[in-house]
Amino acid sequence: MRRGLFGGSFDPPHVGHLMMAEVARESLGLETVDFIPAGIPPHKTGQRLQPATFRLRMLEQAVRDFPQFHVSTIELERAGVSYTVDTVRAMKAAAPRDDWFLIVGADMLLDLPRWKDADHLLALVTVAAAPRPGVDVRVAADNLMRTFHNAHVCALEMPELDVSSTWLRERMHRGLRVDPLLPTGVWDLIVAEGGYTA
Ligand code: ATP
Hints:
Elements: E1 2-8, H1 15-28, E2 32-37, H2 52-62, E3 69-71, H3 74-77, H4 84-94, E4 99-105, H5 106-111, H6 118-124, E5 126-130, H7 137-147, E6 152-155, H8 165-173, H9 186-193
Parallel strand pairs: 1-2, 1-4, 2-3, 4-5, 5-6
Helix pairs in contact: 4-6
């Protein structure tokens, strides 16, 4: 079975996340995509996130209309910083015969060489990267494959979508609407819970 893994802080999940996962699913023939909210993201250890339970509920709402999309709590249950390699090792151990695809944004291709056990991680998965403004996804993919000879990296065919959780959070903190860029039902949940108020 071909399966996708998609990690992030999802604070909040937005249409960019859903669209890149859907393009990965259809173009790579993935039977499932697991969205994995990070407990403590390695590159955001100093940042205050919305509580894990709330990010989880937003994500579960976001994927509700997509039957192949699931949410995994594996990184929320594990203590300490959420390293992708630990997650992939655990998922692979549970389903050793499956082929795993790691879905990331192009910005993460630049970070990846510094991730924990990057060479081992890249031997375990094929990386599927979505284009993102400011990064040439094909150049970044080629560089990664030159640095790590065992890496397989492909670029997803889709336009750059210039949306980030950071920008959405900043707008919400100023009391501005962001619902056009949120998956169905996520805005209602944020309003009901009073999330992202300053
Ligand atoms: P933040 O602004 O808080 O850093 P984000 O919008 O980058 O958040 P994350 O939850 O950190 O969202 O991202 C999870 C994954 O999705 C990362 O691999 C990131 O590169 C990717 N991603 C998020 N938004 C986009 C986008 N608009 N285009 C391509 N990739 C994206």
